[in-house]
Amino acid sequence: MTRERSYRALSARAAVGYLENLGGEQVDEETVEGDDWRASVSERTVDVGPSIRLNEVTVVFEGEEAAVEHVIEKFSQKAIRAGG
Question: Is 9 exposed, middle or buried (0-12, 13-18, 19+ CB in 10 A)?
Answer without folding.
Answer: middle
